[in-house]
Amino acid sequence: MKSLRVASLMLAMSLGSNAKADPPNVIYETLMQDILINADYWTTKPQILSASLGFTQILGVPNLSTSEEGQAANAQFGGAWEVLSTTNPNPNLRAYTSSATPYGMYIGYDVDIVGAGGFPVVFSWPVLPSTVDGSDFEVTLNTGERIIADGASITPNSEYNERSTVVIVSQKFGNRITPGYPGAVYPVRLKIVRDATPLTLVGPGGQTKLAVGFTYGNSIKPLTGYYAGPTLCAAKLSVLSTEGEGAPAFFSGNTPNDGAALYGNKAQYRLRVLTTGGFSPDGVRSLYPTEFESFFQVEVRDLDGRRILLTETDKTYKLKAGSIRILGLADLSVAQASYDDSYVEDHDNQIDIILQGDEAVMKRIKYVLVPSNKSHYKPFYNPGGPGNNPTPGVVYTKPSSFIKQAVTIAIKDPMTVSYGSLP
Known about the structure:
By secondary structure, the protein is α+β, with helices and mostly antiparallel strands. The protein has helices at residues 2-14, 26-31, 68-76, 93-96, 102-109, 259-263, 292-295, 359-362, and strands at residues 36-40, 48-51, 55-59, 116-123, 137-141, 146-148, 151-153, 165-170, 187-192, 200-202, 208-210, 215-216, 232-239, 269-275, 297-301, 307-310, 316-319, 322-330, 350-357, 365-370, 403-406, 408-409, 416-419.
């Protein structure tokens, strides 16, 4: 069985971007095995932290490729297309667009689907991957219609120490008309419903909890990226650990991307932020490890009560409580000598701010901020954003607003859980 899986993985990697593999979907099976290694949980009680339609239409675009024909096919589905300035002669398709091919949807979601939308659901505990199915998720629209998702997956949260987010997909989650305008269709509520394999979460000590009955939304507020931009739903400061880094073979191309891999033994602490969906500078381009100063701030309260904003990398801030230094960002992709727009990160909804310094100062970190359009700072977009060359008349998702997220200090207890083991 193991040799069959390896052979199938190698075959799939050699196929073209729109190729179709035959069942069984062994690539998807490797992703959805019940393996959690040092995976983060974010609160002591299980709950849904966020749920919203990220974008519509761009998952499963036939004939999508880096060619002019592929670009034209993408435009028909309202996908953004990045103008690249790189000298790389062969950029990855993901550097050009956040749209996905039908084959990409098959291997990542085990569905045959065209023109679907993506709907990230963020839990406070990691999920047990084998229990994740589209049939677990019921989305109520502003029209009153209830939609059961066509598919679901933990991708792009493929690393073993992540896995608290599920992305569900369907063609029927809504449209791009701004809520409040005639004809607008959008989600207002999400509910976890019972199916043959009820969705299960794993929490402190390895305990499991059925998520059946969990809800998010009040049936009034629009849950869509065409109404409000992405935001943060949690943040946690812990001692840096590389345990659980890595992913199934087919999904491991962006690893190692942890703080130690990028910054060596200077990396001591990890401030991991959990976002409501993918975070991109424009909806397509990857975030670079060097871009802390363009997007983030960290707030510390010193011993005398002063509010200190950490805004620069490679600067030692000397406080009464001790010293602290921001090295940069991680959990994106592998280290490179320099970064340009051919760089492709993992595009999941976790970003690490890597720190060096005294524990006494780390314990006094209070907030992580995303100023968005304030001063020189830039906003984030989810993968439905406009890219750097938006098509006139096409509606894209909204940028982020100002964000201030409280940080949980998890130095003594990292708030992680393991379940199962690697084959």
